[in-house]
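Ticket #4471: structure export looks truncated?
Reporter: QA, pipeline team
Priority: medium

Steps to reproduce: submit the single chain below to the structure queue and open the exported record.
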Amino acid sequence: MALATVVGWPSAAQQEQYGPLLDVQHYEIDATLNLEAQVLEATAEVHFIPRDPAGNGTFELHNSLNVDSAEMADGTDLGATRFRADASVHISFPQTLPVDEPQVIRFRYGGRLIGYENSPAEGYSLAEITRDRAILLYSGRWFPVNGHGADRFTSNIRITVPDGMRVLGSGTATRSESIEGIVHEFEFRYPSFPGTVAVVREEPVQAAVGDASSLVYLPGASEDLQLAYGEAAAEMVEFYSETFGAPYSKSLSIVEMGEYAPTGYAAPGMVLLNPFGRRDSLNRPLLAKLVAHQWWGTLVGAGNRNNLWLVDGPAQYSALLEAEESEGEDAFLEQIRNTRIEALAYDDVPLRESSRLSDFSPQMNSLTSARGAMVLHMLRWQAGDEIFFGVLRDLVNGHTWGTLTTDDLRGLFEDATGRDLDAFFLQWTESTLTPEFKQDYTIYRLGGNEGFRVIGKVTQDMDTFTMPVEVKVETEGEPEFRVVQVSGTASDFELETFGKPREVILDPNHRILRLDDPTRVQVAIRRGEHLFELGYRQEALIEYQQALDINRFSSLAHYRTGETFFAQSNLQSAANEFRESLNGDGEPLWTEVWSHINLGKIFDITGQRERAVNEYQLAIRTRDDTQNAQAEASKYLASPYRRPRERERTY
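Actual output as written to the record:
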């Protein structure tokens, strides 16, 4: 689930203990959308309970929306004050509200929602109305929000739109007519995060697998691709249901957002993708993560923003499990390697301090999703599969429509394993340090044809570290696996094998989050990719150079450098880097085909058609079709590449 920065909350330490000061229970929202004018007019009744004596309150509201009034149920005006700097609305109660006594505030508000202007997350369109479509995400704060991403609520939302439009939302849907248009009502009876609404024109593509079904509204995709998304989502619902238990609903709506929306977003019963997330072929990893949020985020929530990893981490890890189910163990291991790199891309903030980060940022994704998933992966290694999956099922069952904290999770695993896991959680949720393993070993032949003995030592740079580490011994026969308990900066080990050992590999299946030189190269490249995506190209080049300082033969680092120079129209430098990529270590394999394609583009731009054709032919000869490379090469083999013209944003 996409979650955003909370405004007006207590400190992180207070949040851990107390949660929101105002506990919102329920929303009654009536909204009318004028698609032609791109205007929303609404009233929202906020039913809440003060958990501390409250003389004032703060709600978050999209900066494009103006508050006309805020009053108590008896009509008392609350003097709403707008603060644009933090997209908040401050109110003052006529007297301090008593603790635990239900209260109601009625807001009347409205405004024009035209994209990423005044968005709660800079650069992202979270609430947008166009002439033929509207996407209102809960994270867009299109209604007054308290404790974003943590304060769960029920809702009854009525959306009035012109006839001929479809309205999608969370909960039980009904439809009626009014003078203004057609009223679409959505009642959600469970405390969660409803409040995401989509208004579309198109007919859906329908898909079903077992008891699960999907309605797909992706107008930018072909019917075949829409069907692929619908069937894949239904398969995922079935798999997750078997793994974690029944979801809120086995029916999903899959909706396309605008290109300035987040790559993906999830709400109860809904999955939303922007065109870059949707792609021109099924983006299974992203879809799997978003579908998993029907459990992690919808059924079970984070106690506060410092526990967001308990939502994002399980969703990410669920997607890895789905890859193993649908594509096999190799796909799972490949995605674990990628997740490990992502988890190490940013190490400035401990997992339990995620409230310090901005929503939708690469830092947040690295911390709560990737690092959170790796913590679960390490817990699985510590506990074993039977206990691990049993705890996750018990967790969903025991916390349905509730929240979870890190201490809750620790308690569940300690009860299940009978072990004190304080050191584990201290290391991986309250610290930013990551161990770096090194090893020395000597191989001895045992007498009497009894095999071989390996005597060695594992060293690492953290005195407080302690974990079991898997060891793979490559022999002349089948590989053999052992477990070494690594504690402190140096740990001796002794292993015996029947076959002659050829190599000893620590942590061969990437069960532990750790550093080494190849990992540092990948981490620097990933940071550069993040910076490039955000438009910081010079900063991206610095990260790629750091990767090349460690491994000057890294094909990926040279390729990304060439890609950045190409984006800057520095064609000679780009060509040099693509050549270096071709002469490098060849990892990953796709750098070869795409280096040839990009060299072809450079030669086309500079009027060297014969050389361009040669590069496209070389690309085709690789037979590598990563990201539709063969179709790309064939297209420019038939017709020269031309640089796209810069276009302006229009509404």
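Status: closed, not a bug. The export was complete when the record was re-opened. Leaving a note from the reviewer for reference: The first strand starts at residue 22 and ends at 34.
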